[in-house]
Protein: TLC domain-containing protein
Organism: Lichtheimia ornata
Amino acid sequence: MISLDSICDFLELPTLRYHWQEILLSTLLCSIIFELSRCLSPLLFPKTFQYFKGYTPTNWHIHVVSFCHSTMISIGSIIILMDGELAKNKIFGYSAYAATLYSLSCGYFVWDIIQAIRYIKYQGIGMVFHGIAGFVVIFFSYRPFINYYGSIFLLYEASTPFLNFNWFMDKLGWTGSKLQLVNGIILIFTFFMARIVVGFYMSYLLWIDIYAVKELIPLRYWIVYGTANVVTSFLNVYWFGLMLRSLRKRFPSKSKVPNKTT
């Protein structure tokens, strides 16, 4: 009979045996938050929801789950970075707390993949691959592998709550408001610091540390993490450019606003 231990050993992910329950619980928690949003959001925003059609209400609830996940993960990632013991072995060190946080995110990606497949007509195949990529990168951490540096990739989510706020404000009719302007500025600043400044610098340190123990790292890890790091770095720069253009369109400078008195 195949046991959980034998599966973990076959996958060469020994610490997974301590955290698979957390992955399942996280997936269940995401489903609960989604259902709570379905029940409560129409009551909290009745005027907005009466105009929603088709996929829009579902998309709202998906954004609610995304907001909850990104907020929790961002705060938790900072705590991992302050873990002095884990910092002593940044590549192969293990922390039960860090692994638990990764399990919560891993469970979210399981839920996200299910939703992406379920609503592939609206989200597109790209979101399916996005969810799978996020799941695989975190799943390999149960070797254990880069439990310290993994927090940097999760910290990318620090800008996601503000991105969700921006989406919510569009649906609530607050497009172009001062509140959205403030949120947009915070979004761009957080995105730039977390994904560009800190992200690029920590990626540089990560590969220096990995190269120092290169003979101990399987080829598949080089492929998965190398590809993920390069792709996300390019995407972060591309998305940052899109955000700047979007902010300029929503809030044009006064010099570009037509003078109504002429």
